[in-house]
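Our consortium's second objective concerns turning raw sequence data into structural hypotheses that experimental partners can test. To show how far this objective has progressed, the report includes one record in full. It was chosen at random from the queue rather than selected for favorable results. The single chain below, 572 residues long, was entered without modification.
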Amino acid sequence: MSATGEKLFAEFPPVTTAEWEAAIQKDLKGADYAKKLLWKTDEGITVKPYYRSEDAAHLEFTAARPSAGWGICEEIEEQDPAAANAAARAGVARGAEEVIFAVGAEPEVDVLTAGLEGVRTHFRAGGHGLAVLRAIADFVRTRPLAGTLDLSPVLWAKEAAPLARRILEASPGFRPFAVPCWRFAEKGGTTVQELGFGLAEAAESMGALTSAGLSAEEAAGSLYLSFSTGSNYFFEIAKLRAARATWAQMMEAWGVADEELRRPLIHCRTAIWNKTIYDPYVNLLRVATEAMSAALGGADSILAGPFDETYRQPEDFSRRLARNTQIILKKEAMLDRVADPAAGSYYIEWLTDAVAREAWKLLQQVEGAGGFRKAETWVFEEIEKARQAREAAVASRRRILVGTNQYPNLQEKMLSEIQQPGKFPLRAARLFEEIRLRTERHAAAGGKTPKFLLAEMGDLKMRKARSGFCTNFFGCAGFEIITRHFETVEAAAAAAQKEQADAVVLCSSDPEYPALAAPLCRLLGPTPVIIAGYPADSVEELKKAGVADFVHIRSNAAQTLASWQERVGVKG
């Protein structure tokens, strides 16, 4: 505002949405608006190219404002209690603010937490949750404890409720029951499914705990939501904001009056689903954006996964990088200085409402089917459908994992680096990783690494574009790639024989292929010729001339590479 009270830039006339749309239509020059500019997401939400104030004016769900800041978590891998405690104290000394212990049926809580007074402590008990809950209930008789336990109350509410009440009375900062929303995402589900099915499980948990004797307030105060934060940046921010909005509505329905209990406690872990074995340092970049979206979305605590966790026990170096990722977001980017920094963005406000509405629909579907436990089979059938669709997108490279199904490091070898085979098997990258590891295993057993010669011929622009495409394509299988330009098919055939190439990929323009492919196939004999591209007008002619395959943007890369491995004799 100026000194006279006029709005800044008031001298500029307002631009209506109709005027914006007219300008867009003009720039499109007749192209289809929906196909060019509207984005249909995995969640079934259609995203527009821009948003204005009217898009955020009448929303059903608006996020309750979170407090600024979050706790930097560090996961402790050591199993021995004394060693785990030493690792936790070392992590705290280097910047961690909360720690996560993996514990068994007889946890030594006093040993684990020694010297960690004031540090929020989280316990991952797996199938030993009830035994760990008893140990914590005994421990808090002498010393308060803040943190969480990953016990699901749905199966153990009757036995767990009295212990939970004792813990809540002695340590109101400890929440013993988890709603593991993350498991829907890590099995391949969408953002909406993670939130919607998570809310359904939360509703089931509230019902189980209140039936076991806890009040609605006690039940709400004993639960927390645990999410996986993936790479869909704005959707992840919106998901956490939507979680606060929908949780508040759920608590209102349960009659919870305490405003603090109407705001959920949210823990986030950077996703495992999209992490890779190959080019693992790219995982650092993925983790950075995921931790940032969790912070901007209002998470209360965040665990950033080490970049190498997909294939080995994380080392001090990788844990330090993971920890420092969050420290930078706090101390240098200062993201903890503002509460709900995404508020006011028309797009994010609209997206928060869209995610919340779709998730609420899923919750209502589950409730209509009798609750989470009765609908669980259907829930995971829906998750499986989403996983298959996402894996198909990765297989065809419509969904890119840099360094794995696109832009591979051709010299990289990872077989000898893998210390924990099969770790985190439900990952999007596993399709391509298995293909490339098969090539490495074949070579390690004394076999030959397949060698593909990319023969550039003819039109400069097309040959360069297509050889670049094929370098990425076949490089994802760990094949040896040789790229050369030839003036004649005789020179290309001679080079293929000299290099002992397993296949020749002809890289040229569509009109030139018929004249080049036929003589090249004759000269090469049994050595297969592959065409880079799909020249629709001459495909049948080229097949009759002996062309073995066509590689193009619509190819299912995973299937094609696996097929060529088999054809050139790769075993492993």
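The partners drew two points from this record. The chain has a mean pLDDT of 95. The chain is about 45% helix and 10% strand. Both points have been shared with the crystallography group to help prioritize constructs.
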